[in-house]
Amino acid sequence: MRPKTATLPPSSRLLIFPICLISLLLFFSSPVSSSGSSDLSPDFYVASCPNVELLVKNTVRTAVAFDATLPGKLLRLLFHDCMVEGCDASVLLQGSGTERSDPANKSLGGFEVVESAKRLLEILCPGAVSCADILVLAARDAVELTGGPSVRVPMGRRDGVVSSASHVRPNMVDTTFTLDEMLQLFSSKGLTLDDLVTLSGAHTIGSAHCSVFSERFRTGPNGSVTAVDASLDGSYAAELARQCSGGGGESTTVSNDPETSAAFDNQYYRNLLVGKGLFESDSALAGDRRTRGRVEALAGDQEGFFQGWADSFVRLAGVGVKTGGEGEIRRSCHETNR
C-alpha cells in the first residue's frame, strides 16, 4: 500500500537519503575532473560526473514511487522551460517577475524533484551539473518510468540568468490554439509540424484543471451537457462535466488521457480519432488534413510513436540551449549565483 503523503518525511530527506550510499560508492569509483567541451554530447559528464544519469534517475524513481502525478508534471515543466528562453532552467527561478510567477505557470509542479537531484549532485559533483541538464534528464526518466522509450539525450547545457514573466505568454501554446497558431510557435523554435504532432503525445500522461477546458461544453439547468464544439464527443463531454462538478473548483483536475492515464503510450492518438481530445489544441490535430494522417499513423503504431518521440524529444531539449561561456552552473536551481 502506498504511504499517505502526510506520513512522509521532508522531501529533501525522502529523495536523497535512500540513494546516497549507492551513489557515493559509484561516485568514488570514478575520477572527477572538469569538462572543457562547449558542445552538447551524451558523454559530456563522463569525467566531471560520470554517474549523473543514474543519480537523477534514482531521484525521480524514488519521488514517483510516492507521487504518481510527477511524471506528467516533470514533462510539462520541461516544455514550459524550453519554449521560453530555451532549455536553460529559467522556469525554475523563483522571485517576483520570473517565469515561474506568471499565472500560466502557477500550476506547474515537479520543482522539488529537480531541486533534490541538484542537492545530491552538488554533494557528489560540486559545480559540475547544470539544472537545465537535470530537468531534461528528469523529464526523460519520467517518460521511461511510465512505460515510454528510453532516450539518449546530449548534455552540456548551462543555466540561464534571465527569467521574465513577460516572456511566457508570447512563447507558450494555449490550449485553445488552432493548428496554424501552434505551428507558427513551434516553427519559431526550430521545431517541425511532425514534432508538433509527436510532442503533443505527452498528453498521454498528466492531468489538467477543469477551468482550462470547461468552455468546451455547456451544462444546462436540468443537468444536461452539450458539447460546444463538434470535435468533442458528447459522452466524453458529459463525463468531463461530471468529474468537474464535484465542488473542487479550480483545484479539480482531470486526466489528459481518459483511458490509460498512468501509461506513456499511443492511446492519446486513438482518443483523438474518436473525439476524446481534452483540449481544443488536441482536437485540432485530428481535424486538420495536414496532421490527420500522422495522428492515424501513430494511433496504430506505438513503436513508431516511441521512435518519433525519441527524435522529437531530443530536438525539443535542444531548443535555445546555452553552452560554453553562456549562462552559469547554478549552485541552487531556484536562484542564480549572482
UniProtKB/TrEMBL annotation:
Swiss-Prot/TrEMBL cofactor(s): heme b; Ca(2+)
Disulfide-linked positions: C49-C125, C82-C87, C131-C333, C210-C244
Active-site feature positions: H80 (proton acceptor)
Short name of any one Pfam family annotated for the protein: peroxidase
Cofactor note: Binds 1 heme b (iron(II)-protoporphyrin IX) group per subunit. Binds 2 calcium ions per subunit.
EC number: 1.11.1.7
Binding residues annotated for heme b, in chain numbering: H203
UniProt entry keywords in alphabetical sequence: Calcium, Disulfide bond, Heme, Hydrogen peroxide, Iron, Metal-binding, Oxidoreductase, Peroxidase, Pyrrolidone carboxylic acid, Secreted, Signal
Domain Plant heme peroxidase family profile: 39-337
Example GO biological process: response to oxidative stress
Transmembrane annotation, as ranges: none
Domain of life of the source: Eukaryota
Reaction it catalyzes: 2 a phenolic donor + H2O2 = 2 a phenolic radical donor + 2 H2O
A GO CC term assigned to this protein in UniProt: extracellular region
Site (Transition state stabilizer): residue numbering on this chain: R76
Binding site for Ca(2+) 2: T204, D257, T260, D265
Residues spanning the signal sequence: 1-34
Residues the entry annotates as binding Ca(2+) 1: D81, V84, G86, D88, S90, E99
GO terms of molecular function: heme binding; lactoperoxidase activity; metal ion binding
Localization, UniProt: Secreted
Task of the protein: Removal of H(2)O(2), oxidation of toxic reductants, biosynthesis and degradation of lignin, suberization, auxin catabolism, response to environmental stresses such as wounding, pathogen attack and oxidative stress. These functions might be dependent on each isozyme/isoform in each plant tissue.
Family assignment from sequence similarity: Belongs to the peroxidase family. Classical plant (class III) peroxidase subfamily. Belongs to the peroxidase family. Ascorbate peroxidase subfamily.
Cross-referenced PANTHER family: PEROXIDASE 6, PTHR31517
Name of the protein: Peroxidase
UniProt lineage: Eukaryota, Viridiplantae, Streptophyta, Embryophyta, Tracheophyta
